[in-house]
Amino acid sequence: MKSVARRGSRLSLGLLVLLLSGCLSSGGGSDSDNSTTPPPPATDTRENSVYLQAAAIGVADLDAALKVYKEGLGMTEIKRVTRDDRIEVVLQSADKRGSNVVLMSFTDGVGRNTQQNPGKLVFYAKDPAAFAARFALAGGRITVPPAPQASVGGVVVGFGRDQDNNLIEITGSDGATDSYFSAFGIGVSNLESARDFYVETLGFEEDQFLQIPGQYDEYILTSPVPGSSALVLMHWTSATPRNYTDNPVKLELAAAQPQRLSDAISESGESVSQEPAPSADADLNNTLVGYASDADGTLLEIRQSIRAYLSGAAIGVADLDAAVTFYTEGLGMQEIGRRTRDNREEVVLESADGRGSQVILMGFTDGVSRNYRQNPGKLVFYAKDANVFAQNIRDAGGVVLVEPVDQGPALGNAIVGFGRDLDNNLIEIVGDSAASESYFGAFGIGVSDLAAAKAFYADTLGFKVSLFLPIPGQYNEYILQGYGGSALVLMNWTNGTPRNYTDNPVKLEIATASPEAFIETIDTAGERVLQEPDVSEYVGREGELVGFAKDADGTLLEVLLAPWGQPTDAP
């Protein structure tokens, strides 16, 4: 077994001992704020990366559990499914961040003890006191009321128990809007062996090692694929007996290449009860699903996921130098790189705030005639002062069509305006007092069939539908979100003006956990694959794994291997 360096805790042991004393029978601290490390070379093993898609716990009374988790912890039910031996209710955090929580109500008549789980569920809350009060009113039990802890800079920490005696850790977070599920702890009988299995075999990364004298030791593990909750391995050192084996707990582990994960589990000596295969369950839509277990019998449900996000949005421009000047001087963006392709030069831009996806300006060099003024999409920028931003567009040679104005209560009193760049691309201006200056918040592409495009990008490629928004007399749109970067907006115009939806000089750069699986999914969906992922020799992308495809309207998709660490603005 490999020896590991045990990293220092972000919470002092003094604080943790204080919290764990007296009426608290179990607890601990976690911090899922991970630092970003530089991208490794394209020869790494990121395509094997796994993340915690959902954490599942068995419950004795489903209705009582739902009351606690929905009313008390602010979660939202997003799906309810029936399996062979159980009903599963999938819940999403109030902030729509982190992994899902699944409540499992067993229907097979087999007796299970849901009161002995030696793990925990960790929630970060904007207002921990209000969160705890809400939890108690819904049937939860507070064992340590949330309170500021001077030894860790005033961080508020508290603990409670749900209706099945699961430990609930509550931590204050200024970054939360309401609350979110930040970590899931499972009890393990051999901490070092469990650490090696989850890190060396499954590919999680060790973030922290904590020792709570007289209570427990724990490893906090995170995934290199961002956006999910942390996984905590806990072994109790107190005298109270703990049951580590065959608890009604399940980890839904998502990986781009589930068969590789299954093979790794088998090679480690753990049990694989079902190799990954297309699921017959309607809700899983032929997704590859397999089952295994760790040394303590914790169920591991292995699912395929090609988790992706919009890393860059590219538009063709008639005059590259003029367009660069407009976007840098007019919209405050910064040039961060240039790339050379067979038929074009690309200038890569980053927002003034350093947030959101990149914008790429494409100046074509192949002499082929293109109409740059017919793009039916849009670029959405959020600005601290929408009126100043609009004036900057005008001063840089663009056009302001609609001055930014308050849209009223129906649209949350958003300040919205519209303009055009030098190539007639629609620019939507949205006021955001939280912006330092401005940032690129969303990229819209025109689609000829809105329902079919939504099915492709959301149902097939895994982007999440955030909102369907009809703009009467103008267009209908779906706003989609990956696990980071700017939003992707699908737009179909309804105002009667003819629009060209096919083969526009537009490109989506999509970063994914697995370019190979992503391209394979596009091919299976019947869309065009232009190039299988391969190591690029292009200037600006040397050594990177890159593939190309097109959607039904001919929009170019450049598929990339996602870098380590969180992409900009990942939840």
Protein architecture, described:
- This protein starts with 12 loop residues before the first helix and ends in a 10-residue tail after the last strand.
- The longest helix is centred in the N-terminal third of the chain and has 11 residues, at 62-72.
- Helix 2 (62-72) runs antiparallel to helix 3.
- The protein is globular and about 75 Å long.
- It has nine helices and 32 strands.
- With 571 residues, the protein is of the alpha+beta class.
Strand order of the largest sheet: 2-3-4-1-13-16-15-14
Overall pLDDT confidence:
88
Largest sheet: 8 strands, mixed
Instruction: Assign the structural class, choosing from mainly alpha, mainly beta, alpha/beta, alpha+beta, or little secondary structure.
Output: alpha+beta
List the helices and strands and how they pair.
Elements: H1 13-20, E1 50-58, H2 62-72, E2 76-82, E3 86-92, E4 100-106, E5 120-125, H3 128-137, E6 141-149, E7 155-161, E8 167-172, E9 179-187, H4 191-201, E10 205-212, E11 216-222, E12 230-236, E13 249-255, H5 258-267, E14 272-278, E15 288-293, E16 299-304, E17 308-316, H6 320-330, E18 334-340, E19 344-350, E20 358-364, E21 378-383, H7 386-395, E22 399-406, E23 415-420, E24 426-431, E25 438-446, H8 450-460, E26 464-471, E27 475-481, E28 487-493, E29 506-512, H9 515-524, E30 528-535, E31 545-550, E32 556-561
Parallel strand pairs: 1-4, 5-8, 9-12, 13-16, 17-20, 21-24, 25-28, 29-32
Antiparallel strand pairs: 1-13, 2-3, 3-4, 5-9, 6-7, 7-8, 10-11, 11-12, 14-15, 15-16, 17-29, 18-19, 19-20, 21-25, 22-23, 23-24, 26-27, 27-28, 30-31, 31-32
